[in-house]
Every structure is written in structure tokens, then in C-alpha cells.
Amino acid sequence: MSLNTIIFKNFFKNIKNYTLYIFALIFSVALYFSFVLMSKDESAQEELSSGTLMSTGFLVGSVLLVFIIVTFVMFANSIFLKRRNKELALFQLIGLSRNKVFRILLLENAIIYFGSLFLGIGFGFLVSRLLLMILLKVMQIELPVGLSFSMEAVVQTAVLYIVIFALLMIQNFVFLKRTRLINMLNLNRSSESANKKLGAGTVAFGIIGLAMIILGYWLSVKIFDHSLLLVPLLFGILGLTIIGTYLTFKFSVAFLFNMVRKSKRGHVNVNDVLSLTSIMFKMKSNAFLLTLISIVSALSMGLMSLSYISYYSIDKAIESVMPNDYVFYEEEGLEFYEQLLSENGIEYDSVTIPTIEYDAKDAGAISVDQDMAEQAGASSVHLNIVSDAELDTFDVGENEMVLTGVPYFMETFIDFEISQPLTLVNDEYEYTLELIEVGEEAVLSSFVTYGSPVAVVDEKVYDKLKSHYNYDEEKGAPQEMYALDIVGEDSMEIYELMDDEDNPPFESKISQYTAQMQGTGMMMFIIGFVGFAFLLTSGCILYFKQIGESEDEKGSYQVLRKLGFSEREIMKGLSIKMAITFGVPLLIGLLHTYFAVNAGWFLFGTAMWTPMLTVMGAYVVFYSVFALLSLMYYKKVVKQSM
Amino acid sequence: MILEARDIKKSYGNRLNRTEVLKGIDLNIEKGEFVSIMGASGSGKTTLLNVLSSIDRVTSGHIFIEGQDITNLKDKRMADFRKNDLGFIFQEYNLLDTLTVKENILLPLSIRNMKKSDVEKQFELVAGELGIYDLESKYPNEISGGQQQRTSAARAFIHQPKIIFADEPTGALDSKAASTLLRKLQTLNEKSRSTIMMVTHDATAASYSGRVIFLKDGLVYSTLRRGEHSQEDFYKEIMNTQSVLGGVGVES
User: Fold this and answer.
1) Which of chain A's residues have a Cβ under 8 Å away from the Cβ of B106?
2) Is the minimum CB–CB distance between B145 and chain A shorter than 8 Å?
3) What ipTM was assigned to the predicted interfaces of this complex?
4) What residues does the ABC transporter domain cover (chain B) (predicted)?
């Protein structure tokens, strides 16, 4: 019997320990490959007007994916190395040199690795079709999804995984070189408990950690009050929360545990043995891991929430900039299309709304945050005045004014106060009205108003303002909006009929809607994809870690069962452990997400709670699956321990 | 002389917080000897075994096996040395659960070129001697602790090493399994003229050997030779020395 046959036999017997590793590897390959394949899909790319956006999005997404995959695979490898240290030590004891042991590892890894690569590519090919269908669905594009295979994508994936393989081999080599034989034989039994003594330092750091997180949260709420310092503040908050989280896990949690343990005075019960003391035993590596998982969860949940918010708000966002189906730059445009539509037998309503532009004084109802306004490039607040006679939906009193079409981000630097006087200015002429309402609904297209709000006033007031109005040719302020609404449903066919290079230019609601749908849909899809990869890998990492710990603690379970504890009692203790290892980082992640989203959601859309809670809910469900899987594995180990 | 240790020192920890476990040990072991090392917990017996058997490195001092200094061998040479000259038996057996008894035993032979028939012959001899020949196709978790330890012993003997190092081989066994194992070790020692060095805290186990070296606080305290004594007499003598040492069989 040669060494090779023994090693192979050993390897194939061991393979069930690798199942999840292989599964995760295959999955990561599939994920990456399908991602690359989609980005190379020509038929889809042709269809999308936002082709460049798509490729940039995919590029950013794939870089992130690579980052996740490398971290994940290397972490999984380190866990498996540690699990096998005894075996590797034995090989050395019977006289294999380290180089030979390294070669064994290389061979084994190569089989697992390239086998997974192969399977993953095949699997990814199938999955990519499904994913592309999902993508097109979110972007609301109807397109038959064909089967196209790209050799380029295969090569790209293969190259990446060969590089990762080289990294893994370096990791293995370093491990073998660094770890002494004597340590290898005793590796499992070494405690990583960082805080044997409960010094004042632990308490202080624990409090500092919590304080940092709270300060970070507080700053995130106040972030737009100090708009000049936006960028440094943003990084400050990030730093505070990340370091704070680490300190919390390393010291606050350890401190709390220590307190509980001390208070027991040695009277630990079975639940403590399995949860408290076991987590403390490996606290050092746990602190880092739990921090990583909290931050990663928060990051992906936050990004997914924000992108979902913008996707979710498209309807409303478009409504606030485009009141009509089509808007034209000039009167001739309107006339041209009226004729075109009539010729094709399409019914329409023409809309023409005259407007004049006045400035609003920074006093009374309006208070402008000057720093912020300068950053936004707005030196003064322009208002487009429209008479209520032109609009069916408005009826304004003689001394009153309604502001509408206020973009949702404008409120970050302008405060509108209702029931306060608002003074309109044009050259020397001033006129004061009372502001009674502020709304988002548009009456003029944003491309007529250039993003300024619209002030609706009484017809008489409008006439008065108009008579004192000096039209400035150079400024070219808007005077009239030419628009038309299609009777019944507008459709892409009508848009395509009108959209021709030789025709006068115009803006279309339906085309804007489609473009936004594609843009944010793509964004959401990619972020969701990467976020899912994050979720999957962090879940897997926790699961691997639990497998490792359950093997290490097998002896404890045996002892406990010999002492007369039932399987159920042991499982109860382990459930607590799972709740802590999975629950605490999740909880902190959720809190981080809430504060992150809360700080900036209004820049992305109009609703926060529904999209955010949807994302969080989905995340929690998927995440819990890994906790359950771990618990099931524990159950198996406990059962077999005796 | 097969093994010669000169002024072995071993310490752990950093510069500020140093614990010296071995404080300068000199030792000579002749070919074919069966030597036990005894001592209280913390006297350094396992550490001594680890450095002598190349699992751990010495802090200072030299170890010669058949005249060759092994304290500064390169990895490749060290591996060759372990392959040809050393065998190990541990308290926790250290068997691979994924391999059968026979495969576990043949593992050391698998890395050298030997004729298949010779391998079979050697296996029959050693496994027969240790009484585990019938178990060859069983997995480690299917056999008793004593049988597992005998498998481990067979693995240590299979390649006819010059020295076998055993770290508390009977530590996890009941007295019957322990005496079976020790008698087998004794027979193999006499028959194959291989050298055995065993760490133990059990006077009964030590009484199977030909010489007992007592360690105290990292130094050799005394040496007992069995000579022409019967095993019972030797046992009593060991017990006496142990009580002088202050650890009357009460250590773990």
C-alpha cells in the first residue's frame, strides 16, 4: 500500500467534513461566473439604453465580489487547516518532510478546488439565465432570455480562481512553516481567552466602545446640520462605529460575560458551560469575527435598503418632476407633435401654462442654510409663479401662496415654514404673500423650472406680478410650458413614433420612467447580488466556526452526558450559544443599518420604513437559516458524543 | 550508546516571564534498553521526551542519536531521521479515524520502498505479537481503547525504529489493558532489541522496564536499575524512591 493510496483514501473518507466547504466554493464560483456571464450578455446589453451604466455597475459589483470571495475562501481554509492539524502532525511524525506534507495539501486542495471550479461554472451557467430573468424583471424589460455561453467569462473566472488558489497555497505554506510540531499536537486545546483578568482597562475600553457607537449614532442623526463637514463626518462616523463595535465585542461583551460568570461564584449550570464559558474560551477570535460580521451585515443591509428605497420611490420621484406625458421646449414642438399624433389617430390634450420667475427672500417662511446652498450651487431661491386659473387642482386665496414641486432633497438645505410671510422679488419690485402649503407634486416639468419649486398664486396676484415683471433676455428664464397628455395610457409605441432624430426635441415621462427603472433596477440588482454574497459568506463563516467548535467541544458533551445531563438540556445550552453568536452581531448590524439609512434615506427616495423593513426582514430570515443549520449540526455531534 | 543527551535546557515564555522546565539534563541510553522516566507533575518528564524525540526544540544542549547531533538538523534531514529511526506512542493514541487498523499500522511503511510481501510479513509479525491481527479491517472507533493503543504501538514498531518514544501510553487504559500492553512492549523490546523510552507516572508501568530515571524540578534526581530483581521487588523499590521524592502516587 503506497502512501498515495493511503492519502487518497484518507481524503475521500474525510470528504464529508468538506461538504459545506465544497458547496460554498461551488456556490461562490457559480455566483461569480454567472455575474461575469451576465455582464457579457450581448443581447441584454443591446436592449438596455443604459449600457455603460450596466458595465460600470457590473465592474464595481465584481470587484466587491472578488473581495468577498477571497476573504471567505481563505478563512474557510484556515479553519480546515486547524481542524486537520493532528493529521498533518502525524504525517510529519512518521517522517514526511514539511515539503511533502505541503505537497499532499496541494494535491488535496487542487482536487477539491478545481473540481468545484468546474461544477461551479456549469452551475453558474444555469443560474445566470435565471438571474438575468430576475434582472430584466426588476428593470421591467420584456426580453426572451436565450442561452449564450461566453468563453471569455470562463477564462476570467478561471484566472481569478487560480490566483485565489495560489493565495491559499501560500497560506498553507506559511502555516506549515510557522507552526511547530509540538503546537500542532496541542492546537485545539489552546484557549484564546483574551481577558483572564478583569482589570480597569477592560471596563474602561468596554465603556469607550459603547460610547463610540452611541456618538456615531448621534452624529449620524445630526449629519446634515453640519453640512460643510459632510465627508469628514461620514468617515468619522464609519470609523467610530467600526472601532466601537470591535471594542464592544472585545471588551464590553467580555466584560458583561465576566460579570455574569463572577456572580455565579463557580456555580455554573449546564447552560453556562455550553454558552457563556465556551464563547469566552475563544473570545479573541470571536471578537474579530463578530465585528466583521456585524459591519458586513450592516453594510449590505444599508446599501440594499437605500437602493430599494430609490427603486421603490421611482413613481413618486417622477411625478414630482414630470406633470405631463410629454413636454416640449418650444411652441413649434408642441404644434408639430399635435399634428403628428392627429395623423396617427392618437387622442391627446394639449397643456400650455405661462409662468414667470421671481426670487424668494431668505426671510420669513424661507430660511436657507447658506453653506449647503452654496455647495449645491444655488445662490438664491428662484420660484416659478403660476396662476391657479391654469390648474384644476389648485384654488389659492388672494393673499396666499402654495409651494409645490419641491424636490425632496431641497429640504436638506431650505426650511419652509407654513403660515409665514414670503416675499417675492424681481429687480426693485417686492410682493409679500403668506405661505400656506408645501407639496411635492409637480405642475411644471423640471426641465422648465430647472428644479426650482413652483409657487401657485391667485389669478389676480399673478396678473399684478406679471405686470411688474422684467423679462431678462440673458437669463432666459422660462415663460411658458408646452406639454401634452395622451388620452388613455401612454405607451412606448407612441414614444417611439414621436422619437425621431429629425423631429423637434421633447421630454417624455414614459421614457424617463423606463430609464430610471433600468438604472435603479440595475443598481438594486447588483447591490442585492453582492449583499446576498455577503450574507451567504458571513453565514457560512459562522457555520464553519460552529462546526469547528462543536468538534473541539465534543469531549465536553460527552462529559456532560456522562454526568447525567440529557440531550435536550445540552441542546438548550447550545441554543443559547447560537442565539448569542448569531443574534448579537445581527442585532448590532440591524441597529447600524437603521441609523445609516435614517441619516441619508431622503437623498434616495420618498419612503423609508417599508423598503428598509422588507430588506431587514429578508436578511434576518436568510441569516437565521445558518443559525438553524449550526444548531442541527450541534445536535448531531451531541447525539454521537456518547 | 544509542542516545546521549548533554546538558539539555528548555525554557518557555518571553524574556520577562521565563519558566525553566529542564535545567540541564545529562542522559545516556544503551541500545536495547527499556527506560522509564518518572517524576511528579511539572517535573519536566513530557518536555524531556518531546525534546529527545525531536517534537520540540531544546533551548540549549545537544542530543546525539548514534553519534549524530539532532538538535540542529534541517527539516528534510529531520524528516528522514523520524522516518527511519523513531517511533511514537501517545496517550491519546493519535490514530486516523478514517483509516482501518491495518492502514494505520502500515502508514510509516508507506513512505518507503518496500516489497509488498515484506510489508505483509512485517505486519503479521508485529500485529500478531500485539494481538491485533484479527482486527486489521476494523476502524479505530470500532475497537476498545486498549486495542487502539496496541494499534498505535504496532505503528511505532512496524518500521523497526532505533528508538520508540512513549508518552504515558497506559494513561488512558484500565489496569488489565495496561498490563497487556506493557507485557507486549517488554516482549518486543527483548525480541527485536529495539530501544524504548517511556514517560509514566505509574509505578506498576515503570516496573516493566529495565531502568527508571526520576526527575525532580527539571533535573535528574536518581536512577534505579532492575538488574536481577524480580518485577515485584523492583516495583517496591520504585515506590520507595517515589515516597522519598514526595509524590506517593498521589499525582494525577
Assistant:
1) 1, 6
2) no
3) 0.71
4) 3-242
